[in-house]
Write a structure and sequence with these properties.
The strands form 4 sheets. The chain has a 6-stranded mixed beta sheet with strand order 8-7-6-9-12-13, sandwiched between helices. A 3-stranded antiparallel beta sheet has the order 3-5-4. It is built from 13 helices and 13 strands. It has about 425 residues and is an alpha/beta fold. Helices cover about 40% and strands about 15% of the residues. The chain has 3 domains: about 120 residues, no CATH class; about 210 residues, 3-Layer(aba) Sandwich (Rossmann fold); about 60 residues, no CATH class.
């Protein structure tokens, strides 16, 4: 059989790390409305032009392009062929966008011919270039959750995979404790050595040579003990009030990134645990975990009490050894759902009526055996006092952190279950 070989034509994408590029684009793909805080429903950051500009920024300032690829693209600056370099760069960006679509990271409307025609004519034609929107797929969000988890755990040094360890012993598969006599209900993880030794010790003296075997009785059975590993039900409460993207800082996108990393951690390392997500703003509602990366903030107040109420109702249906609420917020409780369904709001926060009802809900969580761990992205004096009071009422922990260190605090707390409070 004859084989026909064709000449290999190198591709600009061959030297490009697409996974690293996707990580650099995470702020755009998980945008929370920070770019336009006055209109959080605006999807102007989900246009193809916005994606084009974000890729361009990542290629030059994100360290994604290797030096040799830069040299291949632009060659010697003394040549002065800027038009050719610009065309090569534009071709590379278009190839990256096509690769992202082929890989299933983004989806676009089926008819892109008008957009391609406008780009080919340098932006001429009806409408503005880049008006075509793109959607982030579940695959992209799952990948970003995995990368966030890897980056967060890597920055924390190391972590141990497994389940939640306790000081209790159980009869399991992994043996880490001394054997014990078998009791009805124990897992039949028989310790053969200890069982046979019991049977031998029970034999009458002088009968060893006449009986060919060892007779094992019920009382001889010994089972190996392993560390008892508990299960945990968690509700992640995310504050999506307007303050999360104000004051020149985007706090909500890092919070979403941590939520996605925690979801990936539980799904891969703690399959016996459960995780639910609750958004609280003027009111509160549970959302599917797959929608975490698409959530945006809005012109909302902070109804902490309603968020706790929804979370408590979810956890009361869970039959787990541990039940906890992980609340990520940056603001004072400023809204309250009244019995008739109307929303009472006080933009200044720490209203006595709102605080009183919120603490009543904290007390209800404590009575139900639910721990509340609060991760606060602000350090206002009155707010700090309120958060510490919440932690004291439900024996939880209060963490006062920043968007940059939020991930390490949340994940390490979940895995380590330490008892100290970090201020």
């Amino acid at each position: 059989m004859k084989y026909r070989y064709s000449k290999y034509v190198p591709n600009l994408l061959d030297d490009l790390d697409m996974d690293e590029l996707m990580s650099k684009l995470s702020d755009l793909l998980m945008s929370s409305g920070f770019g336009n805080p006055r209109n959080t429903d605006d999807d102007s950051d989900r246009t193809m032009q916005a994606l084009h500009d974000a890729i361009l920024e990542a290629l030059f300032n994100g360290g994604v392009l290797p030096d040799d690829l830069l040299e291949k693209l632009f060659g010697d600056a003394a040549d002065g062929n800027e038009e050719q370099a610009r065309n090569q760069l534009e071709e590379l960006i278009q190839q990256i966008i096509e690769r992202m679509k082929e890989s299933g990271y983004i989806s676009t409307p089926p008819d892109l011919e008008p957009e391609k025609a406008r780009r080919a004519m340098g932006g001429a034609g009806d409408g503005e270039p880049g008006d075509v929107k793109f959607e982030v797929t579940d695959k992209a969000l799952d990948f970003l959750g995995y990368r966030a988890l890897r980056d967060l755990l890597g920055s924390a040094g190391h972590s141990s995979a497994g389940r939640h360890d306790t000081r209790d012993l159980s009869t399991g598969i992994e043996t880490s404790g001394a054997p014990k006599p078998y009791e009805f209900g124990d897992t039949m993880n028989i310790d053969a050595t200890a069982t046979i030794l019991n049977a031998v010790a029970r034999r009458e003296p002088g009968t060893g040579n006449r009986e060919p075997g060892i007779e094992i009785d019920y009382q001889d059975l010994m089972v190996a003990q392993g560390e008892y590993q508990s299960s945990c039900a968690t509700v992640l409460m995310l504050d999506c009030s307007h303050s999360m993207i104000l004051y020149g800082e985007d706090r909500f996108t890092p919070a979403k990134r941590v939520a996605m990393a925690l979801s990936h951690l539980i799904r891969t390392q703690y399959p016996g645990d459960t995780l639910h997500a609750v958004l609280f703003h003027d009111s509160a509602e549970e959302i599917p975990l797959r929608e975490l990366g698409r959530v945006r903030v809005g012109p909302y107040y902070t109804n902490t009490r309603e968020g706790l109420r929804v979370a408590r109702r979810i956890l009361e249906r869970q039959r787990k050894d541990m039940r906890q609420i992980v609340m990520i917020t940056d603001g004072k409780p400023s809204a309250l759902t009244q019995p008739d369904g109307r929303i009472y709001k006080n933009p200044f926060g720490l209203d006595p009526i709102v605080i009183g009802e919120t603490l009543s809900e904290v007390s209800a969580c404590a009575k139900a055996g639910i721990m509340i761990n609060t991760f606060m992205l602000a350090r206002d004096y009155d707010l700090v006092a309120f958060v510490r009071r919440v932690a004291a009422m439900c024996r939880g922990k209060a963490y006062f952190t920043t968007p940059f260190t939020l991930g390490q605090y949340v994940l390490m707390d979940y895995m380590d279950k330490k008892t100290k409070t970090i201020h």
